[in-house]
Design a protein that fits this description.
421 residues; alpha/beta; 2 domains; 16 helices; elongated; binds guanosine-5'-diphosphate; binds magnesium ion
Length: 421
Amino acid sequence: MAIDPEKFRGFTDQLSQIAEAAPMSDERSKNLMDTAIGTAISDMENLIDKSRAPVLYIMGRSGVGKSSLINALANKKVAEIDSVEPTTPKSTPYHISFGERYASWDIIDSRGLFESVSPDGDVPADTVELVKEDLKEYDPDVILHVMSPDQVRAGKEDFDTVKKLRAEFGPSLFPPVLYCLNKVDTHAAPNQWPPEEHPEVAGKIKRNLDFVAEVIGEESKEPFESTQPLYGYEFNSEEHIGVVPTFLLQEPYWNVRTLSWMLGSHLPESAQLQFFQAQKREELMRQFSRSTTNRFATLAGGIGGAPTPIADLPVLLGLQFMLIGLIGGFSCREIKAETATEYVSAMGGTAVTGFVARSVARTLFEFVPVAGAAVSASVAFTTTWALGRSAERYFFDDETVSPNSLRDQAKEALEARTEDD
Ligand SMILES: Nc1nc2c(ncn2[C@@H]2O[C@H](COP(=O)(O)OP(=O)(O)O)[C@@H](O)[C@H]2O)c(=O)[nH]1
Ligand SMILES: [Mg+2]
């Protein structure tokens, strides 16, 4: 089970009941509820209601692991590995459907693209035509350019091909490119894996990543994981997303999670939910929960884009209930009021079954450290943040951690936020 846009709509219809049942609720709250929750819902709309399949376009020479990459990302066998690719350029579209996850993907495997690059490095007309037609037909969100270490240094014309194509299209029509450096195990002797435990191999991988960055002219690169350039770089650029090393020969694959997260976080918002949900990679949905918690806390605290903090207590509770439901949904529980209620009653130490708005509102109310009905910006932020993280622990780890015990962490998150702004 995962987030179904239909069910999400049913769930949001129930939210106003929380505000109505909250202590100190009045007419004014009811009206505010509609606007504030309306903002949160429309914020989630791009993500959930307008959710659509991501469209990925895969390029790379024969044998680099394009089919392996499709299977590794999708977490199931979709593409034939070691298939004989035609010598003429021709692409294969896959529509992959993940029924029980309410998700589907479109992946276009542009087989043989670089095979037709002539030795002098020119891009033959038929290749350019193929890519042009493909881009027009499929309108991909991202291009994944797969290569292997031995080609990185020899494959200048591959990079040039993409560059020329981009120039021909104009930068705004050409999707951003993410480079996947596959087969990094070829840097290692059989007993030198994984690279985290073999600095020599790690060094070779990093040098290759640096080389890619240099060839494509991306000076401003950041290690994607702040302490670990080994997992890849993210570029500060419209043209290139980043470069990520992988091992895709067999499970356990190596570093697919980084590739997935970098790719997913650069997709248009409407394509993100289906991209992440499909993969059955809990870690990704957990990160997704965290970014939603940050978003809701920010919205509640009136920081960043939101004009005013949600000072009205009943409205804040409604917003928090929605966040809890969403996190339940991201953890693959059914998104409905009963799921959020289950968390709330676990936190309150009361066994409430079903959806009882009044007891839910009362329990949530206990976590807001204020007297009276007005909530300060920092309280709105920290309480929402702490609840989100606590809900994450409950739904993802089966742990009952009171939001109160996460308050210090929430304050740190708030300080970090305020410094960012
Ligand atoms: N050593 C090694 N082999 C790989 C890796 N990924 C894929 N392969 C193998 O490389 C061959 C070509 O892979 P395939 O996915 O069919 O490449 P494609 O032609 O680009 O679609 C297959 O035998 C794969 O099993 C990897 O990370 N390391
Ligand atoms: Mg293939």
